[in-house]
């Protein structure tokens, strides 16, 4: 399809049409041709005379009113590949004037989400079910003297989904679902005035007739698996957790049975005559799939709102998304909040178009949400920018013309855009509320006034932040009372990310001995100040105050890092120095306060060490201290408490080889992968240089460990096995028989559900209490950087997977239908009790297990589960709604009072996104905004662990030692393939059950 003048050779290729496409329908309406059609290959075309097609249209206007170019119908657009010449054959109708529409709608057009064939199929299925079984929902409506045929209001669509859904869904969740269908073109606004779906009884939408995508037909053809399986991949930590909670692959009934292949029109396909229960199941499968795409569509729809029309909820939603945008990682939260109110969405469907050219005036700053662009100087491509990258800011900062050109590299690129006026206003606002401290002409500390009137450290060098911390007077009524008082806690909690223990100790000693005057308060200094203008020496009173603050800072450091830092030899030298200096300077009270803080920390550490045999804690302290007794240890931790993992703890590992050899190793938890491989190769007679340490999962997947990896024993998956394999080996390793062995231990059916839940909660609380705060810091910033173990965190994360697969395994291994029903009901009751005990980790693990495809497909089993328990389970599922960053779950968790065992996968996910979405260093300075966000997540641990478990839980969990052993040592199958095989063995599908009669 071409546009231009053939005689002058000024012709542009608009798109290419493939088999099944049509063109030229503008003759129906008497429109002038605006494009040319040129064949590129020998073609066979079906032609319909203009008079005939007009006659057909006049006789069947209701059925053909959705033709491109019809009155009130928007012009269709082409879908281009990366060469911006070819169109996907999915578009069955292409208007002659489509090129004009694309040129004019590059910014104002609705958000064009990438076609998900499963989403399209689910949307068309819903349309057909409504046509066949809920036809009264679609009706003619008159607005402003004009009648819109076969449409329905936004409010009625939302009400219908809520009524038909088997799961309790909020209106906001359902709005997001319809928004996804609006973005995909399944529905449209009758006047094409709204890009956002509105829950309004005066706003009308109609379903768009469109053919079923070929990809969807193939995926659900009889020759395929016969199932509708959604495999949408999300950028999260599911690969770390091995849990479908974050990146869910749910198995559904075949939605294709609801839509007969081929037809896309209003009566083109007939629904299957299935019972009401099957219809409800089919609808729920569609709803569940669309709900997964809803949040993304809702964010897009919010972004395309005019900044003036955004509500506080809209701004908060956008702000939460900006936290995860890489390009904004170096900006403070205050700036992100400002940007959330002004940032706009810009969509470009056509590849090859120039976003701007060299020499153009700079009007906007762009961030790529989807797609990629080429940056050109002249005609030469200098670089390619991808998702998360930004460009165009320099011209705004310098108020200069563009120095490069930017060309769209692929179709359907989506950008965030900040216009010049908003950009300038935000910069001026930030500058006005910013205090900068410079040394030798270089910026070393930056503070920003928050909306609450307090000054927050935004970024700085580690040394200057420490110096600033030790010279502040943040006491009530002090000169720096407006400074954020949590700065010290956040600093000493996140310090491993930006400063070593030795550098920190040196800085504290230097500050204690320093004679320099204190740093002026930000309330007293100009917005930009050089330290060279300060007095030469501090007064005696200032020196005394500083030394007291050094002791105060060390106490905070100990309370934050606990035994992790107290055991450090460098820190112990600092303590010895302070003890001597404090005694010399006559600061006995400060010395006593420091000793009390140390005693409390060492006592807690000694409790844990004592449970492993009463050995020494390994702490060298400058004052005598009584060891805790065995009885004290039992009272503190419980008789059967599991002690926390320590670096010097030893574990037994079995290392396998490709030729089925095996050896046993006795290694420390702190041993690196290199250490373990060296010892294994020595015992097995292997060449160390040509082998690597790997884990073979129960699925056969191979995971290669880096040489610096620690905590190998706890980092492995539930049924993983260690191998010493040749490097770059492509040979497939089959899992060992015991990796997928069916558990022998019977399910404790006779035990009470509440008692089982109490045992689960007691053990989970023990594991959760063992996690050191610093382990999450190491996890966030990369444990390999610190040579520190995170085994307690690993064990807690793996516990989630153990409970999840325990649920699936116990159900799938039971062949008796009635017993299987009882087990499912038992698990629902156990989950309910775990929820009442605030054990959210175990509660959600069981729910995720019940949501596993191997369990959801057991239709005969679920039909016999009591209605009351099914409804309770549906309420549990509603809490798992991932929309708006798991807002439902977060809101529920915030209402709970500690002690709480939180949902660990969500905590790890948040930590992961904090690290990926925010730079640790910006312009050579520590990004303390990021440190503050990380510290907030870590401090949540302290809040969750306030108080102790209820007496009922303690009493129930100490009753049955046999049940206790069972709970603490689950034998499970974690291979989804094996679980699906077991599921099919105990309950085959109706299709395979049906046998022809002779």
Automatic annotation (TrEMBL):
Lineage: Eukaryota, Metazoa, Porifera, Demospongiae, Heteroscleromorpha
Protein name: Rap guanine nucleotide exchange factor 4
GO cellular component: plasma membrane
SMART domains assigned to the protein according to its UniProt record, in alphabetical order: cNMP (SM00100), DEP (SM00049), RasGEF (SM00147), RasGEFN (SM00229)
GO BP annotations listed: Ras protein signal transduction
Source organism of this protein record: Amphimedon queenslandica
Compositionally biased spans, kind Gly residues: 259-270
Region Disordered, annotated ranges: 247-279, 516-539
Cyclic nucleotide-binding domain boundaries: 1-56, 327-427
GO MF, one example: guanyl-nucleotide exchange factor activity
Pfam families the UniProt entry points to: cNMP_binding, DEP, RasGEF, RasGEF_N
């Amino acid at each position: 399809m071409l546009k231009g003048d053939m005689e002058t050779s000024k012709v542009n290729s608009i798109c290419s049409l493939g088999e099944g496409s049509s063109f030229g329908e503008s003759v129906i309406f008497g429109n002038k041709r605006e494009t040319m059609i040129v064949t590129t290959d020998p073609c066979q075309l079906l032609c319909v005379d203009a008079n005939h097609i007009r006659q057909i249209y006049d006789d069947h206007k209701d059925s053909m009113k959705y033709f491109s170019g019809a009155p009130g119908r928007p012009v269709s657009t082409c879908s281009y590949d990366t060469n911006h010449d070819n169109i996907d054959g999915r578009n069955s109708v292409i208007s002659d004037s489509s090129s004009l529409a694309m040129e004019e709608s590059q910014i104002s057009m609705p958000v064009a989400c990438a076609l998900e064939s499963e989403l399209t199929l689910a949307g068309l299925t819903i349309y057909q079910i409504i046509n066949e079984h809920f036809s009264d929902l679609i009706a003619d409506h008159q607005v402003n003297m004009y009648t819109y045929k076969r449409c329905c209001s936004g409010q009625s669509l939302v009400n219908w989904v809520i009524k038909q859904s088997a799961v309790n869904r909020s209106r906001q969740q359902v709005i997001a679902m319809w928004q996804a269908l609006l973005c995909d073109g399944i529905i449209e606004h009758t006047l094409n005035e709204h890009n956002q779906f509105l829950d309004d009884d005066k706003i009308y939408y109609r379903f768009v007739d469109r053919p079923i995508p070929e990809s969807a037909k193939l995926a659900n053809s009889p020759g395929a698996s016969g199932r509708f399986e959604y495999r949408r991949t999300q950028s999260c930590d599911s690969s770390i957790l091995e849990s479908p909670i974050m990146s869910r692959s749910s198995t559904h009934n075949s939605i294709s049975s609801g839509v007969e292949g081929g037809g896309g029109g209003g009566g083109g396909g007939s629904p299957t005559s299935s019972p009401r229960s099957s219809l409800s199941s089919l609808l729920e499968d569609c709803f569940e799939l669309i709900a997964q795409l809803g949040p993304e569509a809702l964010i897009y729809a919010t972004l395309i709102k005019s900044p003036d029309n955004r509500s506080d909820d809209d701004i908060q939603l956008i702000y939460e998304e900006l936290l995860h945008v890489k390009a904004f990682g170096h900006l403070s939260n205050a700036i992100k909040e400002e940007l959330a109110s002004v940032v706009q969405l810009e969509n470009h469907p056509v590849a090859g178009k120039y976003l701007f050219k060299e020499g153009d005036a700079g009007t906007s700053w762009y961030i790529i949400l989807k797609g990629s662009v080429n940056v050109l100087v002249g005609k030469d491509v200098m670089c390619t920018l991808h998702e998360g990258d930004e460009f165009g800011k320099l011209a705004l900062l310098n108020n200069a013309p563009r120095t490069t050109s930017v060309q769209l590299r692929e179709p359907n690129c989506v950008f965030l855009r900040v216009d010049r006026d908003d950009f300038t206003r935000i910069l001026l606002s930030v500058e006005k509320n910013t205090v900068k401290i410079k040394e030798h002409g270089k910026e070393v500390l930056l503070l920003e006034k928050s909306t609450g009137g307090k000054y927050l450290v935004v970024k700085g060098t580690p040394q200057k932040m420490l110096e600033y911390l030790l010279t502040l007077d943040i006491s009530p009524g002090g000169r720096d009372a407006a400074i954020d008082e949590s700065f010290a806690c956040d600093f000493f909690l996140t310090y491993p990310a930006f400063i070593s223990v030795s550098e920190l100790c040196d800085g504290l000693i230097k500050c204690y001995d320093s004679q320099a005057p204190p740093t002026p308060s930000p309330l007293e200094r100009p917005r930009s100040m050089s330290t060279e203008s300060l007095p030469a020496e501090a007064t005696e009173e200032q020196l005394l105050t500083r030394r007291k603050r050094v002791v105060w800072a060390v106490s905070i450091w100990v309370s934050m890092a606990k035994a992790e830092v107290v055991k450090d030899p460098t820190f112990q030298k600092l303590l010895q120095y302070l003890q001597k200096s404090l005694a010399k300077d006559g600061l006995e009270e400060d010395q006593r306060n420091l000793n009390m803080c140390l005693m409390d920390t060492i006592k807690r550490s000694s409790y844990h060490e004592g449970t492993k045999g009463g050995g020494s804690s390994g702490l060298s302290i400058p004052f005598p201290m009584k060891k805790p007794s065995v009885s004290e240890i039992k009272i503190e931790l419980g008789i059967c408490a599991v002690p926390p993992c320590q670096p010097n703890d030893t574990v037994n590992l079995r290392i396998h080889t490709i030729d089925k050899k095996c050896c046993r190793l006795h290694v420390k938890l702190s041993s690196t992968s290199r250490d373990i491989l060296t010892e294994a190769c020595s015992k097995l007679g292997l060449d160390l240089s040509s082998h690597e340490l790997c884990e073979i999962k129960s699925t056969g997947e191979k995971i290669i460990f880096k040489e610096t990896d620690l905590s190998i024993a706890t980092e492995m998956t539930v049924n993983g096995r260690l191998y010493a394999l040749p490097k770059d080996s492509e040979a497939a390793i089959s899992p060992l028989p015991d990796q997928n062995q069916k558990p022998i231990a019977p399910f404790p059916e006779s035990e009470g559900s509440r008692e089982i839940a109490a045992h689960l909660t007691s053990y989970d609380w023990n594991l959760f209490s063992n996690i050191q705060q610093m382990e999450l810091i190491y996890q966030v910033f990369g444990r390999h950087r610190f040579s520190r173990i995170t085994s307690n965190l690993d064990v807690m994360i793996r516990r989630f997977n153990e409970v999840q697969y325990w649920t699936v395994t116990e159900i799938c291994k039971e062949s008796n239908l009635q017993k299987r029903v009882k087990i499912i009901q038992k698990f629902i009751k156990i989950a309910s009790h775990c929820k009442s005990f605030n054990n959210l980790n175990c509660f959600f693990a069981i729910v995720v297990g019940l949501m596993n495809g191997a369990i959801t497909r057991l239709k005969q089993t679920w039909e016999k589960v009591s209605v009351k328990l099914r409804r309770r389970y549906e309420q549990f599922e509603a809490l798992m709604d991932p929309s708006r960053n798991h807002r439902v779950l977060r809101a529920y968790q915030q209402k709970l009072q500690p002690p709480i065992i939180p949902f660990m996968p969500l905590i790890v996910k948040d930590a992961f996104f904090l690290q990926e979405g925010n730079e640790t260093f910006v312009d050579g300075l520590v990004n303390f905004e990021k440190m503050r966000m990380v510290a907030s997540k870590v401090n949540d641990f302290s809040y969750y662990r306030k108080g102790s478990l209820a007496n009922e839980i303690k009493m129930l969990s100490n009753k049955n030692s046999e049940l206790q052993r069972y709970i603490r040592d689950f034998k499970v199958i974690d291979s989804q393939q094996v679980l699906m095989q077991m599921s099919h063995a105990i309950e085959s599908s109706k299709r395979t059950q049906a046998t022809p009669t002779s």
